């Protein structure tokens, strides 16, 4: 089940507004700004369809696509239909339900960053009920966030039940993030601003909280006395594809670490919240982000790795390098990184956190590895490696714990590793929802626990910026790694220096 609490975090009750039918479905207006883009077609509309199919959405709801393209409603619904055919799972696809869902979809041709444009078409689509949730989802370039908020306010479309959802990245550094937060904050309160990070919508990321705080056996060893180090890996087997121009201006550090992976790190490392509420959970995440040891020039030189994928072979096939994919002669943008981080709290004193992410790697995986410390003395001569707890965020969602066990096939007292493994899909016999399904409905309800608060964004940028500047000054030179590998050798050396190795799932 997704996590639920109200917008203020003061209660466990859901404050939604709007009307519900007998099934508990809610009615709302949802305006998608940038509605012809890839994110809308690939993620948002399929997610809404799944929510509709599960009867979470009342049939008087309006999902209003807004973009500059001069499409008719029929044209847009035809595009949406094609997107649903391509991105909805076969097991969920039903023609009659698709047609019913498409009846909720509207379209308005409008540049929503232009406050002086003709807004009558959009205004006509919106309900006049003041308590009906009205969500503006801004799926555009970040530079348009403030002009769009200005225009929405200028045209008097903000109600007490309105919210605005901002896609990451929130800026490119501390200064631009502050500009966006200040600009949008002139018109929307903090409780109305939902900064989305789709990793927080993943059930397996949310489950980190359940594993830690609902299982005392784990929470009591979740500290420096028992844990030697933590690894957080997000590896992809694809290149930059059509995102090349955006990616070259961002790089892996901005694209993955500043948001997704620092959010995962904060969930793994945070203290137990006082209460299960949005405010308390985000307070504890913020403390961890602020406790990250600042990176000096020396740390950047010795505790970071940055690299770019070059030409390589996968299954005998030649894979082009980043520059070929980008179509540019040169670039210093990193597609791979590894960082050794430290958290300055009593719980984590002396425990390194290793973060790595990369494109065109050997395996697709997002995992968290908790490496436990060895026994202080060994009574067996063939001790296996110390236990590891592995949280598989994607794919093959689940959790596994390696333990030492006597080998029953051995005539002597020999040990071997045994793994206790839980495959979540099999264990719960259910479809794992896409992360956007929870996030979209949480925004409708005004439930902020799965979203990022302003001070979290600023704390993340504060830690990231020195690394960005150090790399710009070439304090840590850019390396090249072959496509289809697990990154450069220097990444392995980063852990070997402390006596550790990366956990590689084969």
Automatic annotation (TrEMBL):
<feature type="binding site">
    <location>
        <position position="255"/>
    </location>
    <ligand>
        <name>substrate</name>
    </ligand>
</feature>
<feature type="binding site">
    <location>
        <position position="359"/>
    </location>
    <ligand>
        <name>substrate</name>
    </ligand>
</feature>
<dbReference type="Pfam" id="PF00479">
    <property type="entry name" value="G6PD_N"/>
</dbReference>
<feature type="active site" description="Proton acceptor">
    <location>
        <position position="260"/>
    </location>
</feature>
<keyword id="KW-0560">Oxidoreductase</keyword>
<dbReference type="GO" id="GO:0050661">
    <property type="term" value="F:NADP binding"/>
</dbReference>
<comment type="pathway">
    <text>Carbohydrate degradation; pentose phosphate pathway; D-ribulose 5-phosphate from D-glucose 6-phosphate (oxidative stage): step 1/3.</text>
</comment>
<keyword id="KW-0521">NADP</keyword>
<dbReference type="GO" id="GO:0004345">
    <property type="term" value="F:glucose-6-phosphate dehydrogenase activity"/>
</dbReference>
<dbReference type="InterPro" id="IPR001282">
    <property type="entry name" value="G6P_DH"/>
</dbReference>
<feature type="binding site">
    <location>
        <position position="68"/>
    </location>
    <ligand>
        <name>NADP(+)</name>
    </ligand>
</feature>
<dbReference type="InterPro" id="IPR022674">
    <property type="entry name" value="G6P_DH_NAD-bd"/>
</dbReference>
<comment type="similarity">
    <text>Belongs to the glucose-6-phosphate dehydrogenase family.</text>
</comment>
<comment type="function">
    <text>Catalyzes the oxidation of glucose 6-phosphate to 6-phosphogluconolactone.</text>
</comment>
<keyword id="KW-0313">Glucose metabolism</keyword>
<feature type="binding site">
    <location>
        <position position="364"/>
    </location>
    <ligand>
        <name>substrate</name>
    </ligand>
</feature>
<feature type="domain" description="Glucose-6-phosphate dehydrogenase C-terminal">
    <location>
        <begin position="209"/>
        <end position="503"/>
    </location>
</feature>
<dbReference type="Pfam" id="PF02781">
    <property type="entry name" value="G6PD_C"/>
</dbReference>
<dbReference type="InterPro" id="IPR036291">
    <property type="entry name" value="NAD(P)-bd_dom_sf"/>
</dbReference>
<keyword id="KW-0119">Carbohydrate metabolism</keyword>
<feature type="domain" description="Glucose-6-phosphate dehydrogenase NAD-binding">
    <location>
        <begin position="31"/>
        <end position="207"/>
    </location>
</feature>
<dbReference type="GO" id="GO:0005829">
    <property type="term" value="C:cytosol"/>
</dbReference>
<feature type="binding site">
    <location>
        <position position="168"/>
    </location>
    <ligand>
        <name>NADP(+)</name>
    </ligand>
</feature>
<feature type="binding site">
    <location>
        <position position="198"/>
    </location>
    <ligand>
        <name>substrate</name>
    </ligand>
</feature>
<feature type="binding site">
    <location>
        <position position="202"/>
    </location>
    <ligand>
        <name>substrate</name>
    </ligand>
</feature>
<dbReference type="InterPro" id="IPR022675">
    <property type="entry name" value="G6P_DH_C"/>
</dbReference>
<feature type="binding site">
    <location>
        <position position="236"/>
    </location>
    <ligand>
        <name>substrate</name>
    </ligand>
</feature>
<dbReference type="GO" id="GO:0006006">
    <property type="term" value="P:glucose metabolic process"/>
</dbReference>
<dbReference type="InterPro" id="IPR019796">
    <property type="entry name" value="G6P_DH_AS"/>
</dbReference>
<protein>
    <recommendedName>
        <fullName>Glucose-6-phosphate 1-dehydrogenase</fullName>
        <ecNumber>1.1.1.49</ecNumber>
    </recommendedName>
</protein>
<dbReference type="GO" id="GO:0009051">
    <property type="term" value="P:pentose-phosphate shunt, oxidative branch"/>
</dbReference>
